[in-house]
Give the backbone structure.
Amino acid sequence: MAKGVWIVAEQRDGAFRKISFELAGTARKLADVLGEEVCAVLCGSGIEGIAGQLGKYGVDKVFVADSPALEPYTTDAHAVAVAKAVKENDPAILLLGASTQGKDLSARLVGKLATGLATDCTDVKIADGKLLAIRPMYAGKCFGEVVFSTFPQMASLRPNVFPAVENAKAGVVVKFDPALDAGQLKTKVLEVQKDTSGKADLTEANVIVSGGRGMKGPEGYAILEELAAVLGATVGASRAAVDAGWRPQSDQVGQTGKIVSPNLYIACGVSGAIQHLAGMSSSKIIVAINKDAEAPIFTKADYGIVDDLFKIVPEFTKECKKLLA
Amino acid sequence: MNIVACVKQVPDTEAQIKVKPDGSGIEEGGIKWVMNPYDEFGVEEALRLKEKNGGEVTIVTVGPARAMETIRTALAMGADKGIHICDPTFDGADAYATASALAAAIKGIPHDIIFCGQRAIDDDSGQVGAVLAEFLGIPQVTVITKLEFAGGAIKAIRPIEGAQLLIECPLPCLVTAQKGLNEPRYASLPGIMKAKKKPVDVKDAAALGVTVTANAKVAKFIPPPARAAGKIICGDDPAMKAAELARLLREEAKVI
């Protein structure tokens, strides 16, 4: 009988990603309802020493696979390692992050474990002893309640949505042999080009300052960059701005770009096409600055200013500087 | 080179999505159906590979009768033939079931490289490519923005949070396409005419020997939570409005 709530913890270069603690805190909550244990799987190289940190967030036991073949992450190696630990222990629930790595790994595990997965969930709970996963579909134009008929019941959780609650447990570290066979490892990471800007990725950012067609051109973004620097924010863009070549593809927020959920989303000169609204409506607080009072973005905004953004934004930046000084 | 591109027909990004009153699905009336935008990048890349290296592009889809339009669109862009997996039992199929059907169809044809979109913009699951790769026993490189092929292997760029990876992978393999990979072409008029004569094989679940189960099932569709009406900050002076906004975000919303 499948039992226990498991997470796949995520680390890079020997440091946990924040999502790992969000997963642990959420797993703890579910496990307490079920009266079961929380276990984590952690894969990497030279990471045994950090494994115990998960105890602080409610993990009872950490299964660690420590091997040079597990760093950097490849689907081949990590899927084999995680699948082995899961098959040997038969958990009822398996949670991963809906990060780039978690999405890649979780989907491969669906095939390996012959089970079902709810991707990019914004809520998970226990109903009648089973997992009920709630997730946006159509980029948030509607939501689905997902139920499972196989084990483990898998869900990937949207970063930045679930709180990382401290709840100290033993965090006992158990090593396991991932039994990697060199013949299975086909993909190779040749190069990691790090973004040196020091900005959080849009999908992980706490604050996003986003610009649309109203920015009038690539040079218009300078005032958004200034505001972002003051707030420690990441700059995003609408599809119109990206398609016009004003901003790189990686900045696009929306149904065909990044789906984001910051604490604060400031939309400047963004009209709010439905496919843009779909990508940012799970933001906690939304601010719209637009001179068109009829712009659909105002239907989603918690706070709005109808005015010329080129007058408002520099003033707002000054005010924020004062407040944060 | 034997190239396969998997496609899905989805509602256009501008479509309003309305949940049926009983929560069993979405209202399909009035929806404009298009090829999933991420699949379009996959089809385009498949065609470019073929133009450079020779070979054939086969389009595979799982979907109802209307999904034939999407196969024809890909054929009009320049793909050679299609497989349409069409069976009412696939309504509400999860990624596992969909990938089982695709795998059954693709196992029967030669395949050096398979393209999928990184996710479909309807269910947003982003699973089918990876599950399919697992079923075929081949490696995957997901969410790529650049692809090069040389010497029996691909090199692909995969953006992750705060970095870009350059990944090498031997064929056969499966890749999933992200925006930025290319600019998909439009079908030409002669292309559209030719597409009508290209062969499309229609198969049902029985012909493929797959049974449809849903390991994960959407039990209920619900409309998105409504957001309470926001505050519009009024006034004539931009500086005062900006100051009021900063104050509200600091004191009321507590986000700065």
